[in-house]
Amino acid sequence: MAVGCYGKSKVITMEHRFAEVNDIRLHYVIAGSGRPLLLMHGFPQTWYEWRAIIPRLAEHYTVIAPDYRGAGDSGRTHAGYEKFNVADDLRQLVRQLGFEKVGLVGHDMGAMVVYAYAAQYESEVCGLVLMDAPVPGTKALQAVRASPRAWHTNFHAVRDLAEFLVAGREQEYISHFFKSRFTLPGAVPDEDIERYVKAYSTPGAIRAAFEMYRAWEQDAIDNAPHLARKLDIPVMVMGAEMSVSGPTLREMTGDIAKNGVYREVAKSGHWLCEQNPDQVGDFLFDFYSNMADWT
């Protein structure tokens, strides 16, 4: 299925496609042409969180926006939600599309996934952008988990009980999840929230989402040797002015990368793609447009 949307100067076609990777049916949206940028969503969202960003980037790049395993229209699995596994799904997709080197962007849980991609396959990554989320194994994640505003991170980690309490109440839970993190009224419209509620109300979806949190301990173990040596590739960490993570992410930039920069999105909380998509798009375009060595 193809859907038209407007970039700044032309109509951009977004195509919905599926690929078989690691015995999983992965859904993704693709738009534009040129060098590839992969955009990875977080929880409780899907590829759709990038809808306002894709047209801008697709005027210059091939934009690939998947639903990671267990989310949206991608397949569910009983296990395998460690970020190194999820990242390998994405690498297989990139390879199937004919690309050997890719630019990575991840928000929330997606930031943890794309970090794992870059850590494992650094020579295949030209740049990495992490948006408003800490990396497992860093002091930043420890600080976020200790904050009362991030109570959900520990709740989601309780296997079976969390699903039992949320099942059948996805509407109430996800609506609260979005609205308790607003900094601009109506930043995520009710109709968009309903779209995410529908996605996470399908069988197995909420369990898969919570398994992404339960993998953090193994993620920290997997990340440890890569954090010890730091990434050599260009890295941008993007925080939000009114986010719980902001202060810790600035410090984390130097902990994960030798060539890291920090940018703050103004007038925004955690849902920065909705709250300030223009500035997010500007930061992404500036970061990747300055890379000459991208083959």
List the helices and strands and how they pair.
Elements: E1 2-6, E2 11-21, E3 24-32, E4 36-40, H1 54-58, E5 62-66, H2 83-96, E6 102-107, H3 109-120, E7 125-131, H4 139-145, H5 152-155, H6 161-166, H7 170-179, H8 190-200, H9 205-214, H10 216-229, E8 235-240, H11 246-256, E9 260-265, H12 272-275, H13 277-289
Parallel strand pairs: 4-5, 4-6, 6-7, 7-8, 8-9
Antiparallel strand pairs: 1-2, 2-3, 3-5
Strand content: 15-25%
Say what the CATH topology is: Rossmann fold
**Spans where pLDDT lies below 50 across 5 or more residues:** none
Give the rounded overall mean pLDDT: 92
CATH class: Alpha Beta
What sequence of helices (H) and strands (E) makes up the elements? EEEEHEHEHEHHHHHHHEHEHH
| Inertia-based shape | globular
Return the CATH architecture.
3-Layer(aba) Sandwich
Secondary-structure class: alpha/beta
Tally of contiguous helical segments: 13
Characterize the biggest β-sheet: 9 strands, mixed
* Number of beta-strand segments: 9
- Compute the separation of the termini in Å: 30 Å
The radius of gyration over CA amounts to 17 Å
Fraction of residues in H or I helices: 40-55%
Number of domain units: 1
By CATH, the superfamily comes out as Alpha/Beta hydrolase fold, catalytic domain
Tell me the strand order in the biggest sheet: 1-2-3-5-4-6-7-8-9
